[in-house]
Specification:
Blueprint (H helix, E strand, L loop, with lengths): L2 H8 L5 H14 L12 H8 L3 H13 L3 E4 L3 E4 L4 E4 L6 H7 L4 E12 L2 H6 L7 E11 L2 E11 H4 L12 H6 L5 E12 L2 H7 L6 E11 L4 E10 L3 E4 L6
């Protein structure tokens, strides 16, 4: 059954442009169209769906607003590379934020080890010089594309519990639901740095490309620092979104 037949056969109460938008979104997210691949022309979609040009343009407008497609003057509409957008008004993990936007998020563990805490980690986690921590290094994926390298550091009483666990998802729900550590808030810093060799390899970057580095220190509800992270994102794949008010 083709897309036009599906729209007609469903007798959906939704407007046609919404049905077309949802159909195209599903095809994009399922990988039927690759990044930067050109979508069918407006004329072709008018014929396929049996609708007017304005209906097609309404559907494409919504996909533009969602960041799923972009237009090139005189060339058509193309599939965008997915960009993670995270709102810092609420403390949430990468997977939690991406799932709310309809994206698939996952992680691959590169290493987990107990080690002497680096100086910056000692200060952040309020430890003593020479104390050990558990370091977890992961690659984060958005729609199966690598977008971030995470280096996370935990105090021993927290980190030692992670060695036998599945770390392919968000760690925040694990801290709260498995470890009984309700989270309070986080301090966040942002800067841009050049990607090192390891980051370039895992994120498929060229030599000399910059990355967005997020430094995040998360506290439990009692104010204890329990998770210090360096999150290194591809510059074309991530955006932090803020709202600030003038009081």
């Amino acid at each position: 059954m083709n897309n036009a037949t599906q729209l007609m056969a469903g007798h959906s109460p939704l407007p046609l442009y919404v049905q077309i938008r949802d159909s195209l979104r599903r095809q994009i997210l399922e990988g039927q169209y690759q990044f930067h691949e050109r979508l069918p022309s407006e004329n072709a979609m008018m014929k396929t769906f049996g609708v007017s040009r304005i209906t097609i343009r309404q559907a494409l407008r919504d996909l533009h607003n969602e960041g799923l497609v972009f237009s090139a003057q005189g060339k058509g509409t193309f599939v965008s590379k997915p960009k993670a957008v995270q709102n810092v008004q609420r403390l949430e993990g990468f997977g939690e934020a991406m799932a709310a936007q309809g994206y698939e998020a996952s992680a691959r563990v590169l290493s987990i080890q107990q080690m002497k805490a680096p100086k910056a980690v000692v200060a952040a986690l309020d430890l003593h010089a020479g104390d050990d921590v558990v370091e977890v290094k992961r690659v984060r994926y958005l729609n199966r594309e690598p977008v971030c390298i995470e280096n996370s550091y935990f105090p021993l009483d927290v980190g030692r519990q992670m060695f036998a666990l599945d770390l392919s998802g968000d760690i925040f729900p694990m801290l709260e639901n498995l470890f009984g550590l309700p989270l309070g808030g986080a301090d966040i810093g942002l800067d841009a740095i050049l990607a090192d060799d390891e980051t370039r390899e895992y994120l498929n970057l060229r030599a000399g490309e910059a990355i967005l580095r997020v430094e995040r220190l998360t506290h439990n509800r009692d104010g204890r620092p329990i998770d210090f992270e360096y999150l290194c994102y591809r510059g074309d794949s991530f955006k932090y979104q803020f709202r600030i008010d003038r009081k």
